Q: What sequence folds into this?
């Protein structure tokens, strides 16, 4: 028998003028590190790092389920809404969680769409953070698939989404973690993955903002897996070149969900990234 | 190459969970390799025939067009990036998917796992 050190609670904040009940998990102590999940998934992607005693000895890892994801409910009235994530709502959500938890300049670590929004926040709200770890993150990706495939009444969007994103998982990933990673996509609510992908594949507003990021004030470290078909190493390299002072690490044996699909393979890259982030006098209330 | 597809057919017979996943899939799929045609006919999650073309008379639901070297790499236990998935082949310009893509996507796990039954057995394709 074992009990993990991860604890989960709920936080209610106002986003887009209405309350959102947000589920968050945390583990560790010291410097706060906000961890953002990918499209179509939830905080479980971060569970391996949150159970890593060496990392949590001096880092307070906090992951939350975006509204509509995991254990965070969609907003009241969702039954008549079309879920389409926007850059603005995503930024508002991340900042609301930071305010709600009274975090002082956390490190922001995000994967995929979480990495995209991390770079948006690096450009637009750098003073709220101490540094940015952008995983499988790039300036912009048009879809190489039809996002409407994942929300239709005659097929199971979760099963289709999982089958599609399996293309982004490395063959080096342990089988059990490959399937644990895919399970989250299988469980995703109807239309949620599509709504996330709408943000990820249609909003190119980050491109002109990249050169404005001041990595002297807030470092940006980008990590990318060679088996990622969605955000390829070439995409990440192009993005890193556009940000003066950004650093880049390429993981030869990992894919688009490194912290989830291959925790052991990802760990040294995440530790390296944390070491690049400044240790400010951050405190958590 | 026809031997590899027949081996996949045999292995599918011994893989009940894939037959269950494909129980609603009864279609013919064209695999075109360096211009050579292979028609895999599925019936309720089983491959009932593997026929080498060319054929102008065989209707198919969707097609995967690629080359032998790409498929050999795809079938390695740990393919290099891009060769590890049929959509990877498309993305790196070594494959094309035509026809009723939605039919493929609805049965994507089934089809990819069936094609992957030759994985790690690349010598079969020699």
A:
């Amino acid at each position: 028998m074992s009990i993990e050190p991860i604890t989960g609670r709920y936080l209610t904040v106002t986003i887009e003028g209405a309350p959102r009940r947000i589920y968050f998990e945390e583990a560790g102590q010291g410097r706060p590190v906000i961890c953002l999940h990918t499209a179509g998934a939830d905080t479980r992607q971060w569970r391996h790092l949150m159970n890593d005693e060496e990392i949590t000895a001096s880092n307070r890892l906090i992951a939350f389920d975006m509204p509509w994801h995991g254990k965070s409910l969609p907003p009241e009235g969702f039954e008549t809404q079309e879920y389409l994530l926007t850059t603005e709502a995503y930024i508002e959500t991340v900042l609301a969680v930071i305010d709600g938890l009274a975090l002082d300049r956390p490190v922001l670590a995000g994967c995929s769409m979480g990495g995209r929004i991390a770079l948006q926040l690096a450009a637009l709200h750098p003073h709220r953070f101490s540094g940015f770890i952008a995983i499988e993150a790039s300036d912009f990706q048009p879809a190489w698939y039809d996002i409407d495939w994942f929300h239709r009444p005659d097929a199971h969007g979760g099963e289709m989404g999982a089958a599609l994103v399996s293309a982004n998982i490395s063959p080096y990933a342990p089988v059990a973690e490959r399937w644990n990673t895919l399970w989250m996509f299988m469980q995703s609510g109807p239309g949620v993955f599509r709504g996330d992908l709408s943000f990820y594949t249609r909003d190119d507003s980050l491109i002109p903002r990249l050169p404005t990021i001041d990595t002297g004030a807030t470092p940006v470290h980008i990590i990318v897996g060679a088996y990622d078909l969605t955000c390829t190493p070439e995409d990440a390299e192009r993005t890193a070149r556009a940000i003066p002072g950004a650093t880049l690490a390429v993981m030869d044996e990992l894919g688009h969900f490194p912290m989830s699909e291959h925790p052991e393979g990802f760990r040294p890259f995440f530790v390296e990234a944390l070491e690049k982030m400044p240790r400010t006098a951050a405190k958590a209330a | 190459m026809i031997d590899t597809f027949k081996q996949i057919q045999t292995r599918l017979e011994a893989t009940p969970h894939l037959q269950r996943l494909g129980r609603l899939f009864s279609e013919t799929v064209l695999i075109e390799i360096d211009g050579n045609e292979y028609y895999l006919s599925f019936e309720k999650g089983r491959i009932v025939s593997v026929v080498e073309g060319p054929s102008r008379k065989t209707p198919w639901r969707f097609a995967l067009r690629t080359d032998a070297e790409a498929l050999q790499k795809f079938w390695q236990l740990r393919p290099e990036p891009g060769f590890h998935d049929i959509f990877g082949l498309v993305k790196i310009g070594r494959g094309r998917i035509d026809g009723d893509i939605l039919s493929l996507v609805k049965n994507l796990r089934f089809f990819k796992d069936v094609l992957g039954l030759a994985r790690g057995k690349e010598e079969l394709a020699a």
About this structure: Chain A has a mean pLDDT of 96.
